[in-house]
Amino acid sequence: MKLVGPQLLCFLNMGNAMPEAIDLPEFEPRLTTGEPFSDAEREAVYRAIYSRRDVRGQFRPDAVADDVLLRILDPAHHAPSVGFMQPWNFLVIRDAEKMRQVAGIFARANVEAASMFPKDRQGAYRALKLEGITSAPVNICVTCDRTRGGPVVLGATHMPDMDLFSTVCAVQNLLLAARAEGLGVGWVSILKEAEVKAILGIPDPVRLVAYLCVGKVESFFATPELEQRGWRTRTPIAELVFEDHWGRKPQWPGPENHRSESFALGRRPEACVGPSRGLYALGRPLGSTDVLRAGCNSPPAVFAFRRISPRALVSSEAGSADSVQFRGRRYSPDGREHMIG
């Protein structure tokens, strides 16, 4: 039996068993370089990761432009998904009345949530601001369509929740892209899913995975707000890494000696007090690295929605701006390192 492409999917979706042999069409793979990013690119990626913060109370009323919104949604759509099923949808909400209704759902659920904590923590819980639904100019509801890909999905046959996990990868990409654009995002999870779905017209069996409040902010917390307020502290990485067996500490010294602060670029006050404070960018490359230039007042020059190889991420076509010194190194606008002498 020879089944290829859509024929095979149709065959499986009709309830048939996987045939013993499948003739797949030959193809010429398109590959990109496996080399690591340049120092400038790597620093930009790590900065987005370490300086990302959940935002609740620092939103400005400024509208988020459509092109900027698309620049954070497209990376979310490029997240990894098991079986390439891409189970996500992004419901953009600007309707003030719908936001008000969702905020009401939160308020009722938050009262219930407070009562679930020990009495000695309920006061501290109520003092926390845990949403910015109506203060953010735009909300984004990220969903997971559990029927996408049909009844049999490559990679999800024995772990059926992989579609949900894949959708969370999309959320993470959105959070990092938003930080690179100088946008704050607050993830609101104290909600009754059925009530939110009813307001937004989300059908079953589509699941609500993340309700996000998005907007420009005056500043980001240098460290997580819950940590600053004494709710919880970050667990050292050394306590979370095992080797070969659960609970077995690694024999290599990495996790024990690692200090997140050595990579936490966002904790530098001159770079992370606010999205418009100072030029943190290492040059002005065109393309998707330009989006990582959070901290620059000027908008990205060019953004192309395509998959780009690491070599193509840095370009010298953006002009001859002055070189930038960073962490004992000096970089030209095209990301090349120069000796400081």
Automatic annotation (TrEMBL):
Summary of subunit composition and partner proteins: Homooctamer.
Gene3D superfamilies the record matches: NADH Oxidase
Species per Swiss-Prot/TrEMBL record: Devosia psychrophila
Keywords associated with the record: Cobalamin biosynthesis, Flavoprotein, FMN, NAD, NADP, Nucleotide-binding, Oxidoreductase
Any one GO molecular function term: oxidoreductase activity, acting on paired donors, with incorporation or reduction of molecular oxygen
Similarity field: Belongs to the BluB family.
Domain (Nitroreductase) ranges: 49-216
EC number: 1.13.11.79
Signal peptide start-end: none
Cited Pfam families: Nitroreductase
Domain of life: Bacteria
Name by which UniProt lists this protein: 5,6-dimethylbenzimidazole synthase
